[in-house]
Amino acid sequence: MRRQERLHESEPLILDVVLVEAALRMRVGGADVMRGQLMHLLDVSASDNIRLRVIPFLAGERGLTTGAFVLFSSGLARGSEADVAFTDSAENTAVYRDDPLVLKRLSRLFTGLSRADLSEDDSRKLIEDIEKEMGNDQVGQ
């Protein structure tokens, strides 16, 4: 919760997120929980310091990644190379601080994935559509 508060301070952190469409459609906790999560994404993505984009299924192989990763950069400009990276897999979580090759590779991977994503407006539209679909699915149950 503290990290989320940092997004709304007078000098907020900048958050640049790229999600795959599957993460938005995977139902964890049921339709009501997922709809709440999707609405939360729509709310926070309206902030100037938060950039949220979705890689749609239609992006095909351009949207493939080897797994989840998080990059942190102290650079003021978007697109600055990462200072720290976390990778996550079924086997482990790794932290990279002192490996410039890994940091460069993950920064380039993020840039490459960003070429497969929808615009921020189109991403919000897709999230809205998925949220509505989940609401419609619930009506029939």
Tell me what the structure shows.
The model has no long low-confidence stretch (mean pLDDT 86). This protein has helices at residues 2-6, 21-25, 31-44, 100-114, 120-139, and strands spanning 15-20, 50-55, 68-72, 84-88, 93-96. With 141 residues, it is of the alpha+beta class.
Provide a brief overview of the structure:
The chain is of the alpha+beta class. The chain has five helices and five strands, in the order H-E-H-H-E-E-E-E-H-H. The strands form two sheets. Strands 3-4-5 form a three-stranded antiparallel sheet, with helices on one face. It has a two-stranded parallel ribbon with strand order 1-2.
Secondary structure: elements and pairs:
Layout: H1 2-6, E1 15-20, H2 21-25, H3 31-44, E2 50-55, E3 68-72, E4 84-88, E5 93-96, H4 100-114, H5 120-139
Estimate the mean pLDDT confidence: 86
Instruction: Give a count of the beta strands, DSSP E runs of length 2 or more.
Output: 5
Structural class: alpha+beta
Radius of gyration: 16 Å
The largest pleated sheet is described as:
3 strands, antiparallel
Instruction: Give the overall form.
Output: globular
Fraction of residues in helix: 40-55%
Please mark out the parts with pLDDT under 50 across 5 or more consecutive residues, or reply none: none
Task: Walk across the major sheet and give the strand order.
Answer: 3-4-5
Distance between the termini: 33 Å
Portion in strands: 15-25%
Order of helices and strands: HEHHEEEEHH
What attributes characterize this protein structure?
alpha+beta; three-stranded antiparallel beta sheet; two-stranded parallel ribbon
